Amino acid sequence: MALRVGVIGGGQLARMMIAPAVELGLEIRVLAEDEGMSAGLAATAVGDYRDIDVVRAFAAGVDVVTFDHEHVPQSVLRALVADGVVVHPGPDALQFAQDKLVMRARLAELGVPQPDWAAVRDVAELQAFLDAHAGAGVVKTPRGGYDGKGVRVVRAAEEAQDWLDALAEGDALLVEELVPFVRELAQQVARRPSGDTVAYPVVETVQRDGVCAEVIAPAPAAAERLVQVAEEIGRTIAEGLGVTGMLAVELFETDDERILVNELAMRPHNSGHWSQDGAVTGQFEQHLRAVVDLPLGSTAPRAAWSVMVNILGGPAEGTLEERFPAAMVEHPQAKIHTYGKAPRPGRKVGHVNVADDDLDDAVYVARAAAAHFV
Amino acid sequence: MALRVGVIGGGQLARMMIAPAVELGLEIRVLAEDEGMSAGLAATAVGDYRDIDVVRAFAAGVDVVTFDHEHVPQSVLRALVADGVVVHPGPDALQFAQDKLVMRARLAELGVPQPDWAAVRDVAELQAFLDAHAGAGVVKTPRGGYDGKGVRVVRAAEEAQDWLDALAEGDALLVEELVPFVRELAQQVARRPSGDTVAYPVVETVQRDGVCAEVIAPAPAAAERLVQVAEEIGRTIAEGLGVTGMLAVELFETDDERILVNELAMRPHNSGHWSQDGAVTGQFEQHLRAVVDLPLGSTAPRAAWSVMVNILGGPAEGTLEERFPAAMVEHPQAKIHTYGKAPRPGRKVGHVNVADDDLDDAVYVARAAAAHFV
To answer: Does the keyword S-adenosyl-L-methionine apply (chains A, B) (predicted)?
Structure first.
């Protein structure tokens, strides 16, 4: 009987696991939040992932549980584990992706390079940090943020007054130094429960308004030492945090050639979408192989360069599908991926991958093809 | 709303359309013959494709109807068209894939090179053909054959006595000269209803016991002239027969450097499976794009060489999945595709694709990985 992988969450990451699951002969079942979500084709249940009864019933029908997002509460995750359900990544690893303060403390223990940071509970503590860091900092709510939400650059402690006022007893905000980075990078690593890890080449990511806009794989003009350091950071975190499945490590590259860890994600990640068409094993297949503890696939690139451009928002009028003819006739080499989501300003509704032996050509075609959809 | 593609037939060809349909944002619905078939994930109906009521009900829910096989009767196809259903390939084209005598007659009209052939109704007619062709011939039932079934090499007319006796009034068998070929090739072409065609590089196919065993893309050591002739034959047939979607043309290469058409298939075909991992646009995505009349994708190869090896039969004991660990750990670059079918001697249950810049390496890895599954 085919191995059954249960994915909690019905978004585009779950959707993009469907294709490799079908080809590999893994049975994929999705617990979706609602009807008609991105991963609807594989949705065998609809319900609230915070409801232990809903999640238990779903988990009973699969061999391993994994995730489209990191929002399943620890209480639910630990109840599953207590039931004997196989969960990858498990709660011990996921806590570091769910709470940025816990993550910062653990990375410090591991000796992984990261921005200066502190837990702050009031204006005085926050202002003291800012004063010690050239008067600026990045304040983050430790939980629940994504795509720039829950992140604010401040130059005076009062700018975070509302978040400080909303803190529950015993909670704190995370503040980090404002890193003078020259660019952002991302490192993908996969780790299977029995221990093996594989690393993808480090990539350059371009963010706009806190949202990933473009990815270039591998990171252009990256020094060999930098590539090795990024990979080592990725493997150290995957092993140190006990990650199973895909790990994405968002990195800052500074003007003095240091690499600092910005964020983590323990799942396939936007910065790894290029691998669907640009690597021998895409990150969605790799995640599936890892969570069912199969040997990991080759991360070798299929072309010298791969470029991913997000389709953000989608058309102001009409549907994505109406733009297919023009985009495809002009760019027959573009790989168009759509998420089955209605267009809405700023929303990630799809992406375009282009692999090419010429970087300029790949960037041009990926941008030009994606531009047809906005 | 997403374009809805309805596929009649729930086999592995329908299954392998699921992945590109999901990524491209096309809704795929399958009319399967039974529960639990290869394309079960997308099966929205189960029923008999020869039953016009079943097929009509299925067709009512989709924007275009296409096929996993060529066995839907002309009467059903023509009833759909009369209903206003969009059908690709349509009945006028499919008749040439359904009846080899009709195909031979039409290819003769088009001037496409093919083996000598004749329609024969009795022993005398068949013997006369054999006598005129060095005493040998290939007798074929014009309808219903596949994977070597309905094909018999004869050296005396009596060897086809049973088939001749079973002929209905007015029917005939096809007999073809026994071509002294040096190897077999296959040419894939896609054609969209509005007329554009794209061609893949001609590939070499290796048959065992009448079943495709291996494919090498492109065909090694193929003369440039031969590559052009194969492509021209493919385009001539696609246009001359009004094919929409993928067309596969199986070819003989003779020792005097001629190319002769052996068989046709109007759908994705085993000889094109390499393109899933070896071409920018795989044949399953290309078929979908063609049947919904979207611009066709690039057929450029992703690597110098691609090799496909079929998994025939599957393990004598146990399941395919039990062989994954050993196959994957030894061959991380192998792309394993399984069909969700129970192992059975001779049955196509999956295939392995390997793309590599070195042909010997690609052949070795693909064969070695596939060998883990038998």
So the answer is: no
